[in-house]
Amino acid sequence: MPTEHADGPGFVHHACLYGSDEQFLATALPFVRDGLTAGEPVLAATTPANIELLRDALGERAHALDTAETAYFGRRPVERVSAFLRYHDRRARPGRRMRMLAEPVWGGRSARQIAEWKRMESGLNVLLAELPVWMICPYDTRAVSADVAAAACVTHPVRMDGGRARPCAGYTDPLAYAAAIGPAPETAPATAARMGPTADSAAVRLFARERAAAAGLTGERLALAEFAVAEAAGYLLAADGARVALRIWEEPGTLACELLREDPHGASVPAFAGFLPPDEAPDPEDGLWLARTLSETLEVRAEGDRTRLGLRLAGLRDAECG
Amino acid sequence: MVHPHGGRRRVHVGDLRPGDHACLLFDSDEERALLLGGFLLGGLDAKDKILYLAGEGPAGHDALLDRCRFPAGPPDLSGQLEIVGPAEISSGRGEFEPAALLDRLRAAADRGRREGYRALRVAADLGALLRDGRDVHRLLRYEALLAAEFIDDEALAVCQYDLRRCDPAALDTLAAAHPRSVELDPLVRTADLVVVRTFRPPGLRIEGAVDAGSHGHLREALQSVAAVRGDVRLEMSRVEFLDLGGLRLLMTFARARAARHYAVELTGLLPHLLRVITLIGWDRTPGLRLGAAHAY
User: Fold this and answer.
1) pTM beyond 0.95
2) Residue numbers in B near A219 (CB within 8 A)
3) Does the N-terminal or the C-terminal CB of chain B have fewer CB atoms within 10 Å?
4) Rounded to the nearest 5°, which phi and psi values hold at A314?
């Protein structure tokens, strides 16, 4: 869990709700300026307008500020976490904390995407807990819904207003929050193609390939769809004696895939499984990270004695991946 | 299936059957020794009469067996193996006589049949006849005769040519006279995965699918080239599936090689594998070189 105070050793995660440029600068400017003065790496991953505000206010010091247009700094939560870690690995200095202003883009997102970003905001408290990073996440109350603004105070232990830090009364344990947030994975329609349950990972993979090909995917996209399903199935099948059932069906724009594992021993799935990219040492969740990264969305749910894993892969009509 | 390496189909030395006429173009003594060893052991298993045509080099039983690398020690081939030395291959005038050599092979085949052997297995090391462009036409004549009049259901042949010592144009012509090329038996041969040791440059050719069930096989195959001094190439254009765990094995191998200042080159990777390697950041793995990708 993150420390509440910025002088602690680990990850510090603050929200900043602002309703005007002045309010944004009231929090962001001292945060950035103090970091630069202390010789810390400072990243502002926010909107181009906010980056401009900060640069203007910093004057000459703006040359030392690292910036990223937030919409491109990890398009999806799993990529966002990788982007944070990559920045950290690139810029970390021994014994020194670093600072990040990290403003997600909430506008125009689907309900499923918003749930996933909220889940990630909460999950950062767990995923980055050991990292010597002080992160402030600005939320523009002129642009975000009341629901998203309220969630900021549930997913961050502390909020900043100007230079003042106040604990968030509604802050919720990330594991409990993640389990409760967002729509449950959609279950397969009766028309879905089905196979299993089976312990044969190659059979699962080949079935997924066949269905993806039948949905019109070819070449690299077909291979990546096969890869994503194979790695997701591999994660479930790593449990002793596990068998998975596979359901695949087409939705507009996506190829939906559901993997079901009956868990007689109630094996639980970590709420933030597969959000951290592979490291030098192998980790059982590496395959899930890859499946997440290659899917449009990936939802893992423990449902009593069953694990349900839902992937949505970019379909033939997804022009972005064409 | 269309073979990516031209018209000549490859055959593993352990899969050679009567009727096969295959060539081995080698530039590594290790490859030749391992292949010859496999050829002799294959003859032992199949109860074939073995004829070694020694254009140069070891003309004695023991010297020939010493040249091969038998993991379990040299086999007992007494009576089964005959060696035809340089003096018998060329006539008294020092010229190579294809028809005379064919007669010699026929006599050996007859003898072998009488002795109860299944077939005649010929290993030919006639590259020395190509030095200075000498005898190319006679050698071609011999290969043509061998193919047309000798190789049948009761004979098979492997013709070895040393790339380091023969004229490339002559070799191309000679190689074309063989319907097949021969290579070592795979290090791994399962229903889904085949891994073959390669020598130009040293490395492995990986074919098929690598998943959780075959990581152990891939690890062992990589281990078999761990001692190679110099860079290693892994040829992957016939890899149909390679999971994350398999990719990790390749990265671990590259890092270990980098510690000895050698590189590992992956060639023929499918584009999606290159993409995954880059997504994870493994493209920056020390010692790893990513060669040209392969089209789907």
Assistant:
1) no
2) 271, 296
3) N
4) -60, 125
> How many angstroms separate the CA atoms of B81 and B85, rounded?
13
**What is the C-alpha separation between A308 and A175, in angstroms, rounded?**
17
Q: Can you list the alpha helix ranges (DSSP code H) found in B27-129?
A: 29-46, 61-67, 86-89, 98-114
Amino acid at B287: G
| Mutation for testing the B interface, residue in A227, A279, A283, A321 having most B CBs under 10 Å | A227
Taking only residues 173 to 202 of chain B, the set having a beta carbon closer than 8 angstroms to any beta carbon of chain A reads 192
Specify the amino acid at residue B38: G
Higher pLDDT, B21 or B95: B21
For residue A151, the one-letter residue type is: A
The shortest C-alpha distance from B15 to chain A (Å) reads: 27
Q: Pinpoint the alpha helices (H) of chain A.
A: 21-37, 48-58, 77-91, 111-127, 146-155, 174-180, 201-214, 219-237, 286-294
To test the contact with chain A by mutation, choose from B210, B280, B288 the residue with the greatest count of A C-beta atoms within 10 A, namely B280
Residue A206 distance to chain B (closest CA, Å):
10
Residues B94-114: tens digit of each pLDDT: 778 888 899 999 999 999 999
pLDDT at B5: 41
A221 vs A219: CA distance, rounded Å: 6
B243: Cα within 13 Å, side-chain hemisphere: 26
Which parts of chain A have pLDDT scores under 50?
none
Is some CB atom of chain A closer than 8 A to the CB atom of B219?
Answer: no
Would you state the structure tokens that stand for residue B136, as one six-digit string? Answer: 């190319």
Which residues touch A62 (CB under 8 Å, ≥6 apart)?
Answer: A54, A55, A56
Q: Does B287 score more than 60 pLDDT?
A: yes
Are B275 and A224 inside 8 Å of each other by CB? yes
**Which H/E stretch holds residue A319?**
none
Say whether B281 and A86 touch across the interface (CB within 8 A). yes
Nearest Cα to Cα of residue B122 among B11, B10, B183, B42:
B42
Give residue-wise pLDDT tens across range B178-204: 999 999 999 999 999 999 999 989 999
Q: What are B28's two structure tokens? A: 């590594």
Tell me how far the alpha carbon of residue B96 is from its chain's centroid. Answer: 26
Q: Min CA distance, B264 vs chain A (Å)? A: 17
